[in-house]
Amino acid sequence: MKPAPAPSAAALPTAAAVPHKRNIIAVASGKGGVGKTWFSITLAHAMAKSGKKALLFDGDLGLANVDVQLGVTPDHDLASVISGDATLAQAATRYDGGFDIIAGRSGSGGLATLPASRLLTLRTELHLLAQRYDWVVLDLGAGIERTVRLLTQQSRACLVVTTDEPTAITDAYAYIKVTALEKLADGIQIVVNMVGNQRDGERVYSTLLKACREFLKIEPPLAGIIRRDDHVKDSIRRQVSLLTRHPGSEAAQDVETIFHRLDDAL
Length: 266
Ligand SMILES: Nc1ncnc2c1ncn2[C@@H]1O[C@H](COP(=O)(O)OP(=O)(O)OP(=O)(O)O)[C@@H](O)[C@H]1O
Ligand SMILES: [Mg+2]
Prior knowledge:
Blueprint: E1 24-28, H1 36-49, E2 54-59, H2 66-70, H3 78-82, H4 88-91, E3 93-94, E4 100-102, H5 109-112, H6 116-130, E5 135-140, H7 146-152, E6 157-162, H8 166-181, E7 187-195, H9 198-216, E8 222-227, H10 230-237, H11 242-245, H12 250-265
Parallel strand pairs: 1-5, 1-6, 2-4, 2-5, 6-7, 7-8
Antiparallel strand pairs: 3-4
The structure holds adenosine-5'-triphosphate and magnesium ion.
Magnesium ion binds near residues 36, 37, 60 and 65.
């Protein structure tokens, strides 16, 4: 695999300016469509199921879709926060699965190009709100643009999702490279999604690990492997969380395993 080109670095606040971030987990990827949003929802639900107070923040500011996957239309969302009609805490809406959601607003392109000063206010509000929860999951947009990097910087652990597609692996590497070089996240971990079995997942992980070792001198651990499972599509089609609709499915078990490992390790 070839190393990815250097990022175009727009300035971000320094790490010293980043407030307390002990309980924030970012879910990122380079490539779109690898399962970030679905995984973020299921992870937050797994947290709630094990008695943790969890908040899911839709950080895909331009193409939000947590609300779409869950079939909810909250009274307030991030767009109302940014327009000043609600505080971030007011936008936190309880989902049936027992966790709170801060929804984005799909197609609200202005959110993706928010001025840095507004993003920083949002960041402060997020950290204050995070204190009320055991865990906060940030579902990020694909790619490595400024908003994604700023939100990555808020996380204690950053879970990078890839599939077995070469483009997904290369793009995951590009995201890890930026995150490592700019020291955005303390702990990068890899999630391999949509694979046939454990062995296939381990193969994908070792490809990515090899590139990280060789070019970045880092060894991000494997957070876990999630099997391809048709129950995922079914629950998304029905706009219900997988842990509600198919709680015993393979993909549900895999995400719960990842959560328990994280909960023990972090
Ligand atoms: N483990 C899985 N098994 C089967 N299908 C899956 C699995 N994970 C994700 N999918 C499929 O992948 C699709 C994309 O998932 P999702 O929208 O969560 O990706 P994303 O990374 O958030 O995409 P985007 O970058 O566009 O935000 C889902 O609609 C679902 O059909
Ligand atoms: Mg998404």
